[in-house]
Design brief:
mainly beta; about 5% helix; 9-stranded antiparallel beta sheet; binds 6-O-phosphono-beta-D-tagatofuranose; globular
């Protein structure tokens, strides 16, 4: 559909507007009295969430390519139907094909309480079946009221069972990686990327002085990011997730990431609700599973 057609069928005056965004990708802009969120139909990726009077809660790389075929570096990329490299074929796209696919608009709604939602939909095509040989229906529902809520639901529409992994790979916008901390992971066991042995986190707070790529397995708690530099606390709640990934590349790895400025790592931290590694989702025909994140902030 063209932008004019999308606005005609799914636009809601002053609440949901479809626009041509950077790189001519089509975005939906959701606005209510509490804030504004932007989601790209390319990847069903939330690009921005600005609560009224605040700075964006989500980080976007100044160097990202808004270009079909490439992942957008920032916001909330979807990892589906696998997280990280494909288990047996590394020629397949890292983090799956969801973030590289064009999603359809299924519906838009506004309720009396100024709760605004959009549902985007993706199902199997010849292209997805070449990468993952299953029939599925995936839906992403983005809602704003006083918070942002994002839910990815996958249904098995095949006649055989399938397994998958996922993540809502959220890039939070922070003042300085050296001064923020994350609460909510104390007592959980994490596996640094590549490590076989888990480490029990004894510290109440996670802080950063180098690259961190921690996979917390069996973790279903919410996380809280305290950012004194921006004078705010970000709440990253989740549902339907048994893994949390915490990632910041640090100075050296950041230099090797082509779509990020050398200093880009300083102003984001990824805290990712996921189901990955040993936390695999198994769906029989007809079954569905949802993962959600709920994001909001308060003054510190
Ligand atoms: O979530 C952490 C991670 O899996 C890291 O290993 C890092 O590579 C990151 O995701 C970004 O992946 P991407 O494919 O978007 O460059």
């Amino acid at each position: 559909m063209t932008i004019t057609e999308l606005n005609l069928h799914y636009g809601i005056p002053e609440k949901i507007t479809f626009i041509s965004g950077e790189g001519s990708l089509t975005n939906a802009v959701l606005q209510n009295q509490h804030g504004t969120a932007v989601i790209s139909l390319y990847g069903a990726q939330v690009l921005s969430y600005i609560p009224k009077g605040e700075k964006d809660l989500l980080w976007m790389s100044e160097k990202t390519a808004f270009e079909k075929g490439k992942a957008i570096r920032g916001g909330i990329p979807l990892c589906f139907p696998w997280f990280g490299p494909h288990a047996t074929d590394t020629t397949k796209p890292q983090h799956g094909f969801a973030r590289l696919s064009e999603w359809n608009v299924k519906s838009t709604t506004v309720s009396a309480e100024d709760t605004i939602s959009i549902i985007l939909q993706l199902s199997n095509t010849a292209a997805t079946e070449a990468l993952w040989p299953f029939a599925f229906n995936a839906e992403i529902k983005l809602t704003i009221n006083t918070k942002l809520e994002l839910t990815l639901t996958c249904s098995n529409t095949d006649n055989k069972p399938f397994d998958y992994t996922n993540a809502l790979h959220t890039y939070f916008n922070i003042s300085d990686i050296a001064t923020i901390n994350i609460e909510g992971l104390e007592g959980a066991t994490y596996f640094p990327a590549g490590a076989e042995n888990g480490i029990i986190q004894k510290e109440k707070l996670v802080t950063f002085s180098q690259e961190e790529n921690r996979r917390y397995l069996g973790h279903d708690n919410n996380c809280i990011i305290t950012d004194k530099g921006m004078n705010r606390i970000i709440y990253a709640d989740k549902k339907g997730s048994n893994t949390t990934v915490v990632w910041n590349p640090g100075a050296e790895i950041a230099k090797t990431i082509g779509d990020m400025n050398d200093n880009g790592y300083k102003t984001f931290v990824c805290v990712e609700p996921a189901n990955a590694f040993t936390n695999i989702i198994k769906l029989s025909p007809g079954e569905s599973f949802s993962i959600s994140t709920i994001i909001y902030s308060k003054q510190a």
